[in-house]
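Let us practice reading a record.
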Amino acid sequence: MADWDDLRVFLAVARGESLSRAGKVLKLDAATVGRRVARLEAAMGARLFTRSPQGYGLTDEGGRLVSHAQAIESEMARAHDALTGAGEGITGQVRIGAPDGAANYLLPQVVAEIVAENPALEVHIVALPRVFSLSRREADMVIAVSRPEQGRVIAHKIADYRLHLTAAQSYLDKAPPLTTLDDLPAHRIIGYIPDMIFDRELDYLSDLGIDQPPVASNSVSVQLNLIRHGAGVGVVHDFALPAVDGVRRILTDQVSLTRAFHLVRHADDRNTPRIERFAAALVSGFRRELARLEALAERA
């Protein structure tokens, strides 16, 4: 019969896909993690991982065990919350996955406020331009720009956000006139690398009939820095503009995009007080900070 400690090691390897990455999370050396995995496999009478130069991948048996191990993990977290009580602040570790726009320009301020009020809390922000897997517990919660259409998750809309065409004043001073959308073909456009757009909601330029921007990145912050240095014109989140100088919105009466952020969590965490309280603080702070930054961009 497997014990919880071995299942905890199993989940870390399943999420990290390597002994060394799991060891860093667990604060164990890779050899110890490997022995614990072997002990669990012996106890279960099944091979849980396939080993390859690329790392550790789940076998069919390992994949079936993941959901059961996650359910035990959630129960352990709820038990911890019940024993420690709700009046001592939020404790433990929470990992948030987010696209890099939100992760760079919104989450740091919000998380700083939350951890200041909850000193025993650990927060990891995973800023990657891709879709996260909650089923593999790559994160405890995800900020997404599309509501998930499948999976055992719960999703709540956080807020709408706005985007506009922008350019650096230094670029506009030297470039051809840009007073209408008909002038755009004369300008260098900055945007996402088309084959690296991981969510259809991020395909902003197709609305403008632009399929292949000549200067592109998969990162929002890189795009904004390209614009800041005068490389061209691009669509930017209003909430990101206060973070840079010399970039302003253009053609606002002709181009104004609206998208939404959603908070997505695993269904098993619905009744976990620690996660519930963190999610409530996150959503409240996120909405306040988004409104503040968009108001600054509006006034600029």
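A brief commentary: The first helix runs from residue 4 to 16.
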